[in-house]
Amino acid sequence: MNSISVENLSAGYGSVQVLDRISLSVNDGETVTLLGTNGNGKSTLMKCIMGIVRPTSGSVRATIDGAEHDLVGRAPEEIVDLGISLVPEGRRLFPKLTVEENLLLGASRPSAMEQLPASLALWYK
Questions:
Q1: CA distances (Å), 45 to each of 58, 74, 78, 102, in order?
Q2: Chain-wide mean pLDDT for the chain?
Q3: Burial classification of residue 44, based on how many CB atoms lie within 10 Å of its CB (0-12 exposed, 13-18 middle, 19 or more buried)
Q4: What are the CA-CA distances from residue 52 to residues 71, 86, 93 (Å)?
Q5: Per-domain residue ranges of the chain
Q6: Which pLDDT score, from 0 to 100, does residue 90 have?
């Protein structure tokens, strides 16, 4: 079973505390939506999970294929290597690329390249 667990996570930017003891877990097959107006910490939470923002306290753990991984303190590329990624929405980052070309951008890491044939088969399933 795969999951991500966030426990008592606090984080912010300088003296501005954005997250205060946030806890949640997401398991295989679940869909979770973060709702709120601008400035309520949705992006900060995702950036903490991805290692882009370092929390001031709390934990972020991922269980992948039965192995537990502590994500706090890991570099974003290490987290991506575990198979976790953040896809920004609504910014049209690469508007001239096809859907497939956009998906292939995610296979730039060596471990992803090894799994590319299986990933393509899953995308086109």
A1: 12, 15, 18, 24
A2: 89
A3: buried
A4: 11, 10, 18
A5: 3-86, 90-125
A6: 67
Q: What size, in residues, is the chain?
A: 125
Q: Tens digit of pLDDT for each residue in 20-54?
A: 999 999 999 899 999 999 989 999 999 999 999 99
**Which of 101, 65, 100, 99 is closest to 84 using CA atoms?**
65
Residue 120, CA distances (Å) to 99, 104, 112 in order: 12, 9, 11
Domain range 3-86, CATH class = alpha beta
Q: 78: closest CA among 57, 45, 103, 51?
A: 51
- Type of residue at 31: T
Where residue 111 falls (left for φ over 0; alpha for ψ -120 to 50; beta otherwise) is alpha
Higher pLDDT, 88 or 37: 37
